[in-house]
Each structure stands twice: as C-alpha cells, then as structure tokens.
Inverse folding.
C-alpha cells in the first residue's frame, strides 16, 4: 500500500543539504528570473566592493560571481570549466559538485565563505561551488606548550584542521561537534566539541546557552569568548583551560569536559576547569609515575614560592627577624645594612623590573629578546646590587619567584600568580606575617568560592574528594585512574576496567602447573 | 562616598601595621651580653655589637663595638646604652649571657627578669658564669681566634655539651629550675687564661636556689657528673686510673667512651628520713688501653670491675660536693614533694638536703674494645 502511494503521489522524503551551522533567522530573498536584477542585488549587498569579480559567460546570458580574494582560480577551473570541457556535463547547472539554491541572501553568505556562484538569465536558480582558497600553516608544536616526549603537533588557525586533529585522536561516533556563528559583523565560526554520553548534557546545554547570549559585533579569539561566558570575571584566576595541544583536548574530552574552538585561532578553551588542571602537563603522563609525581609536586610547590616568597622575606626583615637562623643573621644583616630604601620598596621595584624585562622580551624578535634578557637580568641585577639600591638577597628572592612563576604549565595562571605577588608584598610590608596570613586566607577563600560552569574550582581539595587526589598532587599509575574525575560531572564514571589482569593470569597458570597430577586425573574422570 | 570610606578604612588598617614595623637594617644586634656587680650595688652591663660592612663580593668586613655602662637595672642599662650607639639596641638574637662571679653569688633572677618578660628576647641563649673575673673582661677580651666573642663562647659551650661536660640548658630550661624550690641547677664556668687571650671551660658552678654557691664540679669530673644526672652528649669519655704497676704511668689508665647509660634514682622515705639511691648502668667501649693485651682471659671482666669501683668512688665524691654546696641538682626535693608530700611539708629542704644519704652505685659493662684486641 505504502509503495503505491509513494509511486503515485511521489511522496518521498527529500534529503536536504545539512547546514554547517544552524540557519540564521535572516530573511529569504527569492531570486528573480532576470540576471541583471540578481547581479545588481548581490553587488548592492556588498556595497560595490571591488574584489567581487563578475565573469560574464554565454554572451551575457550567464554570470559567475566570486571574491577574487577568497576564491582560488585553479579550483574554479577544476570544478566548473574542466568538467564542461571534458564533456561530463552540458550545462553548469548539471554539475554534480554544485549546491543549488534560489535564495539570494544565502548566495551572499556563501560568497563570503569563498564560494563561487553561477547564475543564468531566465533561471530562478543559483549554483554554488566551493572554491575557497586556504592558507594554513602546518600543525607545528605550540611554542608555549612544548613537551619532551609525546605528540609534537598543535592546533593551527584553521578550525577544520583542528577538528581533524581531534577526530583523528578520538575515533568514536560519540564525538559531537556543534557549530555556532558568533559576532554580528565577523560571523566567526565557533564550535563546541564534546563526547555525547560522557559529557554532562546540562553542562553542554549551559555552554550553548551562554554562547547564544553573546551579542557582539566581533569575536576574534577564544579569549574574547571566555570573557563572555566565564562565571566570575572579577577574579585573577582563569576559569577555562587554554591549550593549543590536540592531545590535551582529546584527553579532556574523554574525561567528560567540553572544548570550545573558534575559527582563526589555535587556542582551544576547555570547560569546566579546576585549579589543579592548570598544573597538569602532558609530559606528566608520558613519564614514569614516580617522576611524574615528583615533577607535579615541584610545580605545586612553585605556587607557594611564586606567591609568597618575596612577601615572606619582606615580613622577616621588617618585622620578625628573630626567625632568621643564628648563622645567617650576620650575612643577611651585612647585605641589607646600607640599603637606602625599606624592603617593601626594594621588593616592589625588583618585581616590577622583572616584569619589565619579561614584557620587553616577549614582543621583540628572538635575537634582541636574548639581549634584553642579558642586559636586564645580568647587568641591571648586578649593577643594582653594587650601587646599593637593592640587597643581593632581595635579588635572589625575586629571581627565584620569577623562575617559580614560569614553572606553571599554563601561561594564564602564571600571569595570575605574578599579579598576586603584589598585594601580598604590600600586606607583608605593612602587617608582617599576619598580613601574609590574611592575604593567603583571602586567596584561599576566593579559590574555594569560585565555580567554573557549576563545578567547584578548587576541587578536589574543596570539596575534598580523596579519590580524585590521584591526579592532583600525585600522578598515580594510569591503570589506577579507574574513575573519571568527579569535577568534570561525567555521565559515565568508569574510565577503565581492570587492565592488568594478565598479572593474575600468570599467577593462575603457575599454580596450575604446580599440580599437573590432579589436572590429568580430573580430565580422565570427565572422559569416563 | 562608600568607596572613599572603604579606601580610608583599608589605609588606616595598613598604617597601624607600620606602627609595629621593626626594620632589620635599622637595629644594632647584640650577640653577647654581660652583667657584673658594680661597687655601689648597681650593675654593670657590657654588650658587644658587631657591625658588618657590605662588600660587593664575599663576606664583608666586620667591626666590633664594646659598650659598657652601669645602671640600676638591666633595662635601665639598656636605655643608657641606646643613647650611646647609633640605631636601636636589640637583644633578640643574644647568643650568650655572661654573669660575673660576684653578681652570680647574689640572686640572679632580677637580672634575667626582663628576658623572661619580653616576648622578643632569645630564650635560646646560653647562660655562663665567669670564674674569678668579670663578664666585661670576657666580652672585651682580645681572643686569639678571629671569630666574634659570641661565636667563641657559644661554640665552646656547644662543644662542652657534645662531649658531655655541660647540660646545655638555655635560659628557657633554666627558668623552671630557677623558680622551683625542689630542684637546683648548675651553670658552666668560664675562666680567662693565657693573659686574657683564651677562655677555658672550668667546670660547672653549683647554684642553690637563685644564687651561685661558689662551689663547683671541676672540669675533670663533669662527665661523670653529667652521667649521674642522666645526661649524655654525643660523646662521653672517661679516663680512669685502674692499675698501679709502678712502671710507666701511662700504662695505668684506661679510656672508655660510654655507649649507653641508664640512670635510675630512687627516693625512699624511712620514717621521715629521706634516702636516695642512684643506680647507673653503663655500657662502654674501650677507646684507649695503652697496656693492651685485652685478649687475656678475664682481663675485660677485671677492667670493668675496677672501673665500676673507681666510678662509684668518684660518684660518692661528686655527691659529697653537691651536698656541701647544698645544690640539689638531681631534683631529689622535687621527688620528695611529689611522692612524699607529708614529709615535704614538715621539713625545710634547704636544711635537710645536705644531711640526707645519697648512695650511688655504678655498674660498667664493656661491650666493645675497638678493632684490635
């Protein structure tokens, strides 16, 4: 019965082309039969821009439109003219690689994407050909996230390449990618990537809602997006993890987190993030777990040094010098005896000088950057001590602090730490140890109150989850990380089932071999 | 307006902090402190203040300033010294506190009162008494070593502690013994020798209640004296004469180092009569035995027997000295007070202590004799 109705009424479900992003709610404009009207409309839509190329074909009966700045001539030839010349098709409209529409507004959008459109006099149809030219660099290792062992590729400015890198790593049907167009003027492609079935749907929903609510003319980088969707803007701590490493993104996706990418930037945002995620480096998982744990502990220790060492030193020499050991008291006294300024000024000046050197070094080309490092670090450091402006112990303290702050694998957190040094120095210089205690209390309170997409930022310390400490202060062997971290709110808590059963099997085999007599007798019994 | 108010509050909070500020670079550190008896009841305080000048490389040059003044109380003296030196006087890193013999024979608590009262003073400092001299002489002495006088005295006392010659009690530990009636203490004695260029540790000065008695345990006997108190430093060596064969004098001696010592003290009350027994069990190693031949059968037992006898005799001698000085270093009074309070109430401990019987027994066991027989 159904077959008949289908045949007679031609009632088939037609497959439509899937849109990359959800259709924007813009109006549709049907194209007219007259070619000149259509061309006029499109030219008008682009305000007579000069790089919109119009090639008139068939003696004025047809036109091919494309942006010469976006389209590639070889591709136009290969996709449109070559098949015609070869005789594969008689007409441009019959070319199979064309996408058809009759909406002029859609044609405007696809032109912007780098497509070429073909129109003919008397036809209410437009063919679109994807002839985009792309200039991409190769996926090199990101400069700021180098690893010793492990994958040496990184994201590039092209989002398709980036998603390709992830799909290659997570070859599973649950890997879901959702496109968004953000920025009213820039129309930036933004994608949300997650593992369906592992990632918490409410989390994905929340991220989508927040992305939808962005109503800005321009979106130029993930940092831009981050500020719109993060929970607490008044905080020095980054609440989303920034990375340019595909392996890191893949690992976090499988943990149940969500990644946000945007076209034109290699940086990927990962949410929700916790404080301790910023201290995990991909290297940790390539090392043996002893060394991984050791390095992890060193890194977390560097947090305390980076935030508190200058403050501690200043508090000691201006309030509590009783705590200096007897043997050190004379050397310390000798070094600070004739310094003109109080230690707090000394400390602030030195910390600011280090920041100046760092900032000057970043923007300059590499050879000059090194010179800045030498001039700034060695010459100024030495001269400032010789001139008696700063004590040499203060130079040691500030240099150690700077080194400790660079240990953090994440650049965002490293900057945050260096920023936190200043209030603590001021507190230590005015209230001594009590000031440091107050400052640390405020920082800790803030950390525990902070949330990233509904997840406590300071997890698994506050709220305490002993099981999740396996990958924070220490890095336990991989086969012991049976459960996904709770803070990712993964739907499927179990990440791996027992994976070292071969060990038990060997033990059983040995015990079996130990008693061969019994075994043979039992087989005999069964035979009988 | 609200923001203004908030900023003002924060500023005032910080300003109160500066009130307590004590810049390390603006203080004059006093590392050794000496007190002497003045002629008219006043005290003389002497301090040594090191001033270091920064050098661009290596340790800076150091100069010492010795200041002495007489005043009514230690704090009064400090104020006077403060008026004589640049910057502020700060005693929070004092390493040694020296007392002249004449002053120590009086009540020493008033001298130390300020140190116990102030939270910033260094209670970790050593206390020592200068025998037959004044603290001022010691602090201003021109000793042959190049180090600071505080380092010299501190190091000397530390060495005495590690070789079981002194208890190593600092001001904090002495405090209880100073104030408690049932226990007394002893303090290292220092003496200037060699025309004022050398200091020697000259035994432990015995205190009764809060004053130096003038009696002492000589430096030769301090090791045994420490062992009787149950205190052993890192090394405890005893050299005893155990033979008298008339040949070479050196062959009569044996030196043992104590490996373990176990002291047990019993205080008994026999119808109001207090009697104490001190039993000392020692495991020793023979460190030096010039007459050799330890492999001879029975020789080791003989040595240990003789050692036990000799050391018991020495202990009796030490205890006699203690009782003569009326210095209850072993804290027998404390035990009486704790275990026999009814007796304690009836007696006057200062009068009773010299009369009670204290019997020491020393048992020595030789456990090693070095790597040769």
């Amino acid at each position: 019965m159904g077959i008949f109705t289908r045949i007679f009424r031609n009632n088939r479900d037609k497959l439509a082309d899937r849109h990359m992003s959800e259709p924007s709610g813009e109006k549709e404009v049907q194209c007219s039969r007259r070619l000149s009207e259509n061309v006029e409309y499109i030219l008008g839509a682009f305000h007579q821009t000069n790089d919109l190329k119009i090639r008139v074909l068939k003696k004025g009966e047809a036109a091919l439109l494309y942006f010469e700045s976006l389209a590639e001539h070889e591709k136009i030839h290969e996709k449109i003219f070559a098949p015609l010349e070869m005789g594969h098709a008689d007409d441009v409209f019959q070319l199979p690689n064309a996408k058809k529409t009759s909406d002029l507004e859609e044609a405007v959008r696809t032109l912007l994407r780098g497509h070429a459109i073909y129109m003919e006099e008397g036809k209410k149809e437009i063919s679109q050909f994807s002839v985009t030219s792309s200039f991409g660099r190769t996926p090199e290792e990101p400069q700021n996230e180098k690893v010793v062992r492990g994958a040496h590729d990184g994201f590039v400015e092209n989002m398709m390449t980036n998603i390709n890198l992830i799909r290659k790593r997570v070859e599973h049907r649950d890997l879901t990618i959702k496109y968004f167009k953000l920025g009213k003027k820039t129309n930036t492609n933004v994608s949300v990537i997650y593992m369906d079935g592992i990632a918490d749907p409410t989390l994905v929903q929340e991220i989508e809602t927040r992305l939808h609510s962005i109503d800005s003319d321009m979106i130029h980088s993930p940092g831009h997006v981050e500020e719109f969707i993060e929970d607490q803007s008044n905080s020095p701590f980054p609440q989303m993890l920034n990375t340019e490493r595909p392996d890191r993104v893949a690992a976090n996706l499988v943990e149940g987190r969500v990644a946000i990418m945007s076209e034109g930037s290699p940086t990927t945002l990962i949410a929700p993030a916790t404080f301790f995620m910023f201290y995990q480096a991909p290297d940790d998982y390539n090392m043996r777990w002893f060394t991984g744990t050791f390095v992890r502990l060193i890194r977390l220790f560097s947090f305390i040094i980076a935030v508190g060492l200058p403050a501690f030193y200043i508090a000691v020499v201006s309030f509590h010098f009783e705590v200096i050991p007897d043997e050190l008291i004379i050397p310390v006294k000798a070094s600070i005896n004739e310094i003109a300024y109080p230690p707090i000024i000394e400390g602030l000046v030195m910390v600011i000088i280090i920041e100046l050197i760092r900032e000057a070094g970043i923007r300059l080309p590499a050879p000059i950057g090194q010179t800045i490092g030498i001039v700034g670090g060695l010459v100024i450091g030495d001269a400032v001590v010789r001139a008696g402006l700063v004590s040499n112990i203060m130079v040691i303290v500030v240099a150690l602090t700077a080194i400790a702050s660079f240990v953090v694998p994440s650049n965002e957190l490293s900057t945050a730490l260096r920023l936190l040094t200043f209030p603590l120095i001021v507190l230590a210089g005015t209230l001594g140890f009590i000031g440091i205690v107050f400052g640390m209390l405020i920082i800790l309170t803030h950390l525990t109150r902070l949330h990233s997409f509904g997840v406590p930022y300071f997890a698994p310390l506050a709220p305490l989850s002993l099981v999740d400490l396996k990958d924070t202060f220490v890095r336990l062997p991989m086969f012991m990380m049976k459960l996904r971290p709770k803070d990712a709110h993964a739907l499927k808590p179990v990440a791996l089932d027992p994976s070292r059963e071969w060990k038990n099997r060997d033990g059983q085999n040995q015990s079996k071999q130990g008693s061969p007599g019994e075994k043979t007798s039992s087989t005999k019994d069964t035979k009988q | 307006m609200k923001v203004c108010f908030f900023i003002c509050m924060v500023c005032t909070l910080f300003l109160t902090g500066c009130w307590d500020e004590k810049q390390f670079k603006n203080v004059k550190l006093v590392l050794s402190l000496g007190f002497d008896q003045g002629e008219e009841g006043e005290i003389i305080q002497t301090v040594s203040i090191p001033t270091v000048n920064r050098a661009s490389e290596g340790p800076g040059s150091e100069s010492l300033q010795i200041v002495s003044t007489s005043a009514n109380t230690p704090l009064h003296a400090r104020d006077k010294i403060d008026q004589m030196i640049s910057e502020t006087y700060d005693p929070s890193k004092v390493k040694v506190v020296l007392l002249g013999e004449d002053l120590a024979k009086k009540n020493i608590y008033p001298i130390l009162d300020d140190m116990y009262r102030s939270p910033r003073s260094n209670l970790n400092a050593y206390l020592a008494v200068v025998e037959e001299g004044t603290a001022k002489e010691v602090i201003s002495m021109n000793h042959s070593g190049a180090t600071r006088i505080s380092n010299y005295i501190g190091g000397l006392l530390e060495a005495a502690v590690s070789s079981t010659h002194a208890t190593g009690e600092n001001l904090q530990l002495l405090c209880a013994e100073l104030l408690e009636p049932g226990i007394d203490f002893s303090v290292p004695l220092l003496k200037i020798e060699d025309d004022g260029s050398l200091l020697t540790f000259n035994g432990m000065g015995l205190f009764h209640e809060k004053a130096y008695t003038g009696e002492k345990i000589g430096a030769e006997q301090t090791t045994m004296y420490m062992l009787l108190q149950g205190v052993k430093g890192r090394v405890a060596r005893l050299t005893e004469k155990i033979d008298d064969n008339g040949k070479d004098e050196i062959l009569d001696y044996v030196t043992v180092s104590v490996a373990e010592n176990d002291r047990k003290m019993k205080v008994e009350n026999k119808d109001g009569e207090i009697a104490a027994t001190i039993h000392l069990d020692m495991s020793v190693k023979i460190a030096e035995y010039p007459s050799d031949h330890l492999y001879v059968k029975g020789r080791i037992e003989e040595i240990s027997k003789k050692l036990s006898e000799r050391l018991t005799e020495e202990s009796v001698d030490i205890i006699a000295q203690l009782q003569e000085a009326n210095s209850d270093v072993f804290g027998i009074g404390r035990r009486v007070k704790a275990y026999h309070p009814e007796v304690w109430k009836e007696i006057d401990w200062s009068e009773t202590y010299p009369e009670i019987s204290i019997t020491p027994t020393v048992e020595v066991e030789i456990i090693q004799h070095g790597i040769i027989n």
In short: The two ends of chain B are 92 Å apart (CA to CA).
